[in-house]
Amino acid sequence: MHSPSSFSRGQFLIALVAPALVLAAPARAATPAFTAEKTPAGVTIKHAGAPFAEYVIGEANKPYVFPVHGPTGKPMTRVYPMRTIEGEQHDHYHHRGIWFGHENINGTNSWLERGSATGGAPDDQLTAKQKTALAKTAGHLGAIKHRAFREISADANRAVIVTENDYLDAQGKKYLTEVRRLTFRVEGGARLIDWDQEFTASEGDATFGDAKDAGVNIRVPTSMAVDRKQGGRLVTSTGFTDAAAWGKRATWADYSGPVGGETLGVALFNHPSSFRHPTSWHARTYGLLTANCFGTLDKNDPNGPHTLKKGERLVLRHRFFFHQGDEKTGGVAAAYERYAKEKK
After folding, report:
1. What are the C-alpha distances in Å from 172 to residues 100, 140, 146, 176, 220?
2. How confident is the prediction for the chain on average, in pLDDT?
3. What is the distance between the alpha carbons of residues 118 and 129, in angstroms, rounded to a whole number?
4. What global pTM score does this model have?
5. Among residues of the chain, what percentage have pLDDT more than 70?
6. Three-state secondary structure readout of 64-89
Protein backbone atom coordinates (compact mmCIF):
# COMPACT_ATOMS: atom_id res chain seq x y z
CA MET A 1 0.00 0.00 0.00
CA HIS A 2 1.25 3.45 -0.87
CA SER A 3 1.49 6.14 1.74
CA PRO A 4 0.14 9.57 0.76
CA SER A 5 3.70 10.78 0.26
CA SER A 6 4.48 7.96 -2.20
CA PHE A 7 1.78 8.98 -4.73
CA SER A 8 3.10 10.42 -7.99
CA ARG A 9 1.61 13.71 -9.17
CA GLY A 10 -0.41 11.85 -11.86
CA GLN A 11 -1.73 9.32 -9.34
CA PHE A 12 -2.75 12.14 -7.00
CA LEU A 13 -4.73 13.91 -9.77
CA ILE A 14 -6.50 10.70 -10.77
CA ALA A 15 -7.42 10.01 -7.15
CA LEU A 16 -8.76 13.56 -6.81
CA VAL A 17 -10.77 13.66 -10.07
CA ALA A 18 -12.24 10.14 -10.09
CA PRO A 19 -14.68 10.66 -7.17
CA ALA A 20 -15.91 13.86 -8.79
CA LEU A 21 -16.68 11.96 -12.00
CA VAL A 22 -18.58 9.34 -10.05
CA LEU A 23 -20.62 12.03 -8.30
CA ALA A 24 -21.32 13.85 -11.58
CA ALA A 25 -22.76 10.80 -13.35
CA PRO A 26 -26.04 10.62 -11.40
CA ALA A 27 -26.66 14.34 -12.02
CA ARG A 28 -26.46 13.80 -15.78
CA ALA A 29 -28.74 10.77 -15.58
CA ALA A 30 -31.33 12.78 -13.64
CA THR A 31 -31.62 15.56 -16.23
CA PRO A 32 -35.38 16.13 -16.74
CA ALA A 33 -36.54 14.85 -20.11
CA PHE A 34 -39.76 14.03 -21.89
CA THR A 35 -40.75 10.63 -23.18
CA ALA A 36 -43.55 9.77 -25.61
CA GLU A 37 -44.45 6.10 -25.74
CA LYS A 38 -46.86 4.70 -28.30
CA THR A 39 -49.32 2.23 -26.76
CA PRO A 40 -52.33 0.26 -28.04
CA ALA A 41 -54.56 3.00 -26.57
CA GLY A 42 -52.61 5.95 -28.03
CA VAL A 43 -49.56 7.77 -26.62
CA THR A 44 -48.33 8.19 -23.04
CA ILE A 45 -46.36 11.36 -22.19
CA LYS A 46 -44.05 11.58 -19.19
CA HIS A 47 -41.72 14.29 -17.89
CA ALA A 48 -38.70 13.36 -15.78
CA GLY A 49 -40.26 9.91 -15.43
CA ALA A 50 -43.51 11.22 -13.95
CA PRO A 51 -46.91 10.98 -15.69
CA PHE A 52 -47.96 14.06 -17.67
CA ALA A 53 -50.79 13.03 -20.01
CA GLU A 54 -52.18 10.34 -22.29
CA TYR A 55 -53.57 10.82 -25.79
CA VAL A 56 -56.37 8.29 -26.29
CA ILE A 57 -57.64 7.00 -29.63
CA GLY A 58 -60.32 4.44 -30.48
CA GLU A 59 -62.23 4.47 -27.17
CA ALA A 60 -64.92 7.00 -28.13
CA ASN A 61 -66.15 8.73 -31.27
CA LYS A 62 -63.25 11.19 -30.99
CA PRO A 63 -59.66 11.27 -29.67
CA TYR A 64 -59.11 12.93 -26.30
CA VAL A 65 -56.44 13.58 -23.66
CA PHE A 66 -56.91 11.83 -20.31
CA PRO A 67 -55.56 11.76 -17.69
CA VAL A 68 -53.71 15.06 -17.37
CA HIS A 69 -51.43 15.64 -14.38
CA GLY A 70 -50.79 19.20 -13.27
CA PRO A 71 -47.57 20.81 -12.03
CA THR A 72 -47.77 19.06 -8.65
CA GLY A 73 -48.86 15.73 -10.09
CA LYS A 74 -52.54 16.13 -9.18
CA PRO A 75 -55.27 15.25 -11.75
CA MET A 76 -56.48 18.23 -13.75
CA THR A 77 -59.54 16.75 -15.47
CA ARG A 78 -62.71 15.03 -14.32
CA VAL A 79 -62.45 11.23 -14.39
CA TYR A 80 -65.99 10.42 -15.61
CA PRO A 81 -66.91 8.78 -17.98
CA MET A 82 -63.58 6.99 -18.34
CA ARG A 83 -63.95 5.78 -14.76
CA THR A 84 -66.59 6.17 -12.07
CA ILE A 85 -65.63 7.72 -8.73
CA GLU A 86 -68.00 8.31 -5.83
CA GLY A 87 -68.76 11.99 -5.25
CA GLU A 88 -67.83 13.06 -8.77
CA GLN A 89 -70.26 14.65 -11.25
CA HIS A 90 -71.73 12.16 -13.73
CA ASP A 91 -73.35 14.55 -16.19
CA HIS A 92 -72.44 15.10 -19.86
CA TYR A 93 -71.07 11.67 -20.78
CA HIS A 94 -69.25 13.19 -23.78
CA HIS A 95 -67.04 15.51 -21.68
CA ARG A 96 -63.83 13.48 -21.90
CA GLY A 97 -60.78 15.22 -20.40
CA ILE A 98 -59.49 17.52 -23.15
CA TRP A 99 -61.07 17.23 -26.58
CA PHE A 100 -62.43 18.97 -29.67
CA GLY A 101 -65.95 18.52 -30.99
CA HIS A 102 -68.60 20.34 -33.00
CA GLU A 103 -72.34 19.70 -33.00
CA ASN A 104 -72.84 20.75 -36.61
CA ILE A 105 -70.30 20.52 -39.42
CA ASN A 106 -72.17 19.67 -42.61
CA GLY A 107 -75.04 18.57 -40.38
CA THR A 108 -72.92 16.05 -38.46
CA ASN A 109 -72.48 16.05 -34.68
CA SER A 110 -69.08 15.04 -33.26
CA TRP A 111 -69.73 16.79 -29.94
CA LEU A 112 -72.12 14.19 -28.60
CA GLU A 113 -71.57 10.43 -28.62
CA ARG A 114 -73.82 7.43 -28.21
CA GLY A 115 -73.26 7.41 -24.44
CA SER A 116 -74.60 10.96 -24.24
CA ALA A 117 -78.06 9.46 -24.73
CA THR A 118 -77.56 6.07 -23.10
CA GLY A 119 -75.18 6.87 -20.25
CA GLY A 120 -73.01 4.04 -21.55
CA ALA A 121 -75.68 1.40 -20.91
CA PRO A 122 -75.87 -1.58 -23.31
CA ASP A 123 -78.77 -1.74 -25.77
CA ASP A 124 -80.69 -4.39 -23.83
CA GLN A 125 -80.71 -2.22 -20.70
CA LEU A 126 -81.89 1.09 -22.16
CA THR A 127 -84.81 2.88 -20.56
CA ALA A 128 -87.63 4.30 -22.68
CA LYS A 129 -86.22 7.78 -22.11
CA GLN A 130 -82.74 6.70 -23.26
CA LYS A 131 -84.16 5.03 -26.37
CA THR A 132 -86.03 8.21 -27.28
CA ALA A 133 -82.91 10.36 -26.75
CA LEU A 134 -80.82 8.01 -28.88
CA ALA A 135 -83.37 8.00 -31.68
CA LYS A 136 -83.26 11.81 -31.80
CA THR A 137 -79.48 11.98 -32.15
CA ALA A 138 -78.34 8.76 -33.84
CA GLY A 139 -78.99 9.98 -37.39
CA HIS A 140 -76.61 12.90 -36.92
CA LEU A 141 -73.89 11.36 -34.75
CA GLY A 142 -70.53 11.33 -36.48
CA ALA A 143 -66.96 10.60 -35.53
CA ILE A 144 -63.53 12.17 -35.50
CA LYS A 145 -61.57 9.07 -36.45
CA HIS A 146 -57.84 8.82 -35.87
CA ARG A 147 -56.21 7.83 -39.15
CA ALA A 148 -52.48 7.94 -38.43
CA PHE A 149 -49.68 9.40 -36.34
CA ARG A 150 -47.49 11.67 -38.41
CA GLU A 151 -45.04 12.22 -35.56
CA ILE A 152 -44.39 10.99 -32.04
CA SER A 153 -41.23 12.51 -30.61
CA ALA A 154 -39.65 13.66 -27.35
CA ASP A 155 -36.46 15.28 -26.10
CA ALA A 156 -35.25 17.19 -23.05
CA ASN A 157 -37.52 20.15 -23.75
CA ARG A 158 -40.79 18.83 -25.13
CA ALA A 159 -42.90 15.97 -26.45
CA VAL A 160 -44.82 16.21 -29.72
CA ILE A 161 -47.74 14.25 -31.15
CA VAL A 162 -48.96 14.99 -34.70
CA THR A 163 -52.03 13.13 -35.91
CA GLU A 164 -54.27 13.06 -38.96
CA ASN A 165 -57.99 12.71 -38.32
CA ASP A 166 -60.91 11.95 -40.64
CA TYR A 167 -64.28 13.55 -39.89
CA LEU A 168 -67.02 11.04 -40.70
CA ASP A 169 -70.79 11.45 -40.89
CA ALA A 170 -73.36 9.02 -39.46
CA GLN A 171 -72.96 6.77 -42.52
CA GLY A 172 -69.16 6.72 -42.21
CA LYS A 173 -68.56 9.06 -45.15
CA LYS A 174 -65.61 11.42 -44.81
CA TYR A 175 -66.31 15.15 -45.14
CA LEU A 176 -63.27 16.88 -43.57
CA THR A 177 -59.59 16.30 -42.74
CA GLU A 178 -57.78 17.58 -39.64
CA VAL A 179 -54.09 17.63 -38.79
CA ARG A 180 -53.65 18.02 -35.03
CA ARG A 181 -50.37 18.93 -33.35
CA LEU A 182 -50.02 18.59 -29.57
CA THR A 183 -46.89 19.92 -27.87
CA PHE A 184 -46.18 19.18 -24.20
CA ARG A 185 -43.77 21.39 -22.27
CA VAL A 186 -42.84 22.65 -18.82
CA GLU A 187 -42.41 26.36 -18.13
CA GLY A 188 -41.19 27.28 -14.67
CA GLY A 189 -43.70 25.77 -12.27
CA ALA A 190 -46.38 25.24 -14.93
CA ARG A 191 -47.20 22.51 -17.45
CA LEU A 192 -48.28 23.38 -20.99
CA ILE A 193 -50.12 21.64 -23.80
CA ASP A 194 -50.28 23.44 -27.14
CA TRP A 195 -53.33 22.28 -29.10
CA ASP A 196 -52.98 23.30 -32.78
CA GLN A 197 -55.46 22.22 -35.45
CA GLU A 198 -55.57 22.65 -39.22
CA PHE A 199 -58.81 21.70 -40.95
CA THR A 200 -58.94 21.11 -44.71
CA ALA A 201 -62.09 20.80 -46.79
CA SER A 202 -60.59 17.78 -48.54
CA GLU A 203 -63.79 16.16 -49.80
CA GLY A 204 -65.83 19.18 -50.82
CA ASP A 205 -67.27 22.28 -49.16
CA ALA A 206 -67.43 22.06 -45.35
CA THR A 207 -69.66 24.37 -43.30
CA PHE A 208 -68.94 24.90 -39.60
CA GLY A 209 -72.36 25.74 -38.21
CA ASP A 210 -73.33 28.37 -35.67
CA ALA A 211 -73.39 26.05 -32.65
CA LYS A 212 -73.24 26.51 -28.89
CA ASP A 213 -71.59 23.13 -28.33
CA ALA A 214 -68.41 23.40 -30.34
CA GLY A 215 -64.73 24.05 -29.88
CA VAL A 216 -61.69 23.12 -27.81
CA ASN A 217 -62.58 21.92 -24.32
CA ILE A 218 -61.49 20.81 -20.89
CA ARG A 219 -63.72 19.41 -18.14
CA VAL A 220 -62.07 20.31 -14.83
CA PRO A 221 -62.13 18.18 -11.65
CA THR A 222 -65.45 18.25 -9.79
CA SER A 223 -63.90 19.95 -6.76
CA MET A 224 -62.90 22.93 -8.94
CA ALA A 225 -66.38 23.57 -10.31
CA VAL A 226 -67.78 26.92 -9.21
CA ASP A 227 -71.17 25.33 -8.48
CA ARG A 228 -69.61 23.07 -5.85
CA LYS A 229 -68.87 26.18 -3.74
CA GLN A 230 -65.53 24.88 -2.53
CA GLY A 231 -63.55 27.87 -3.81
CA GLY A 232 -63.73 27.26 -7.55
CA ARG A 233 -63.29 30.38 -9.69
CA LEU A 234 -63.81 31.09 -13.39
CA VAL A 235 -62.42 34.31 -14.86
CA THR A 236 -61.64 35.75 -18.29
CA SER A 237 -58.86 38.06 -19.41
CA THR A 238 -61.46 40.85 -19.60
CA GLY A 239 -62.47 40.42 -15.96
CA PHE A 240 -65.78 38.56 -16.25
CA THR A 241 -66.18 35.95 -13.54
CA ASP A 242 -68.14 32.75 -12.96
CA ALA A 243 -71.56 32.72 -14.70
CA ALA A 244 -70.93 36.16 -16.25
CA ALA A 245 -67.98 34.71 -18.22
CA TRP A 246 -70.27 32.70 -20.50
CA GLY A 247 -70.52 33.97 -24.06
CA LYS A 248 -67.94 36.72 -23.66
CA ARG A 249 -64.95 37.22 -25.96
CA ALA A 250 -61.52 37.13 -24.35
CA THR A 251 -57.96 36.14 -25.15
CA TRP A 252 -57.93 33.65 -22.26
CA ALA A 253 -60.11 32.14 -19.58
CA ASP A 254 -59.00 30.47 -16.36
CA TYR A 255 -60.54 27.89 -14.05
CA SER A 256 -59.02 27.41 -10.58
CA GLY A 257 -60.00 25.75 -7.35
CA PRO A 258 -59.16 23.02 -4.84
CA VAL A 259 -57.73 19.69 -5.97
CA GLY A 260 -56.52 17.24 -3.34
CA GLY A 261 -55.83 19.89 -0.72
CA GLU A 262 -54.11 22.35 -3.10
CA THR A 263 -55.34 25.29 -5.14
CA LEU A 264 -54.61 24.57 -8.81
CA GLY A 265 -55.78 26.01 -12.08
CA VAL A 266 -55.89 25.69 -15.84
CA ALA A 267 -56.00 28.57 -18.27
CA LEU A 268 -56.94 28.16 -21.92
CA PHE A 269 -55.18 30.59 -24.25
CA ASN A 270 -56.39 31.68 -27.71
CA HIS A 271 -53.49 32.64 -30.02
CA PRO A 272 -53.81 35.85 -32.09
CA SER A 273 -53.34 33.82 -35.30
CA SER A 274 -56.29 31.54 -34.46
CA PHE A 275 -59.51 31.78 -36.48
CA ARG A 276 -61.82 34.55 -35.17
CA HIS A 277 -59.48 35.63 -32.37
CA PRO A 278 -60.39 36.62 -29.71
CA THR A 279 -62.65 33.65 -29.22
CA SER A 280 -65.99 33.49 -27.43
CA TRP A 281 -66.21 31.31 -24.32
CA HIS A 282 -68.69 28.53 -23.66
CA ALA A 283 -67.60 28.51 -20.01
CA ARG A 284 -69.84 26.86 -17.45
CA THR A 285 -69.85 27.03 -13.67
CA TYR A 286 -70.42 23.27 -13.44
CA GLY A 287 -66.86 22.73 -14.70
CA LEU A 288 -66.67 23.14 -18.50
CA LEU A 289 -64.21 25.48 -20.21
CA THR A 290 -64.63 25.77 -23.99
CA ALA A 291 -63.06 28.11 -26.52
CA ASN A 292 -65.87 28.38 -29.09
CA CYS A 293 -65.31 30.70 -32.04
CA PHE A 294 -68.22 29.18 -33.99
CA GLY A 295 -71.35 29.73 -31.94
CA THR A 296 -73.24 32.98 -31.45
CA LEU A 297 -73.29 32.87 -27.66
CA ASP A 298 -74.16 36.55 -27.41
CA LYS A 299 -76.80 37.78 -29.88
CA ASN A 300 -75.16 41.21 -29.85
CA ASP A 301 -71.77 39.73 -30.72
CA PRO A 302 -72.36 37.07 -33.39
CA ASN A 303 -69.98 34.46 -34.76
CA GLY A 304 -72.09 32.55 -37.27
CA PRO A 305 -71.52 29.79 -39.83
CA HIS A 306 -68.31 29.57 -41.81
CA THR A 307 -67.92 27.60 -45.04
CA LEU A 308 -64.63 26.26 -46.31
CA LYS A 309 -64.64 25.77 -50.07
CA LYS A 310 -63.04 22.56 -51.26
CA GLY A 311 -59.29 22.74 -50.63
CA GLU A 312 -59.51 25.68 -48.21
CA ARG A 313 -58.12 25.53 -44.67
CA LEU A 314 -59.02 26.82 -41.22
CA VAL A 315 -56.57 27.00 -38.31
CA LEU A 316 -57.24 26.97 -34.56
CA ARG A 317 -54.40 27.53 -32.08
CA HIS A 318 -54.74 27.21 -28.32
CA ARG A 319 -52.65 26.46 -25.24
CA PHE A 320 -53.64 24.79 -21.96
CA PHE A 321 -51.64 26.33 -19.11
CA PHE A 322 -51.72 24.26 -15.91
CA HIS A 323 -50.57 26.26 -12.90
CA GLN A 324 -50.53 26.43 -9.12
CA GLY A 325 -52.81 28.88 -7.31
CA ASP A 326 -55.42 31.09 -8.94
CA GLU A 327 -54.92 33.14 -12.12
CA LYS A 328 -52.99 35.84 -10.26
CA THR A 329 -50.56 33.71 -8.27
CA GLY A 330 -50.22 31.43 -11.29
CA GLY A 331 -49.05 34.32 -13.48
CA VAL A 332 -51.64 33.63 -16.16
CA ALA A 333 -51.72 37.11 -17.74
CA ALA A 334 -47.94 37.24 -18.18
CA ALA A 335 -47.88 33.67 -19.52
CA TYR A 336 -50.49 34.61 -22.11
CA GLU A 337 -48.46 37.63 -23.24
CA ARG A 338 -45.47 35.36 -23.84
CA TYR A 339 -47.65 32.96 -25.79
CA ALA A 340 -49.22 35.72 -27.89
CA LYS A 341 -45.76 36.83 -29.05
CA GLU A 342 -44.87 33.37 -30.35
CA LYS A 343 -44.98 33.14 -34.13
CA LYS A 344 -47.17 30.32 -35.40
Report:
1. 19, 11, 13, 12, 31
2. 92
3. 9
4. 0.90
5. 91
6. EEEEEECCCCCECCCCCCCCCCCCCC
C-alpha to C-alpha distance for 133 and 119, rounded to whole angstroms: 11
Instruction: Label residue 21 by pLDDT band (50, 70, 90).
Output: very low
Residue 256 to residues 54, 233, 321, 323: CA-CA distances in angstroms?
22, 5, 11, 9
| 64 vs 58: CA distance, rounded Å | 10
Across residues 45-57, what is the average pLDDT? 98
Percent of the chain with pLDDT over 90: 87
Strand ranges, E, within the chain: 34-39, 42-47, 50-56, 64-68, 98-102, 143-154, 159-168, 174-187, 190-200, 206-208, 214-219, 233-236, 252-259, 262-270, 280-284, 288-292, 306-308, 313-324
**Which of 208, 207, 204 is closest to 310 using CA atoms?**
204
Contacts of 271 (CB under 8 A, 6+ apart): 277, 317, 318, 319, 339, 340, 342, 344
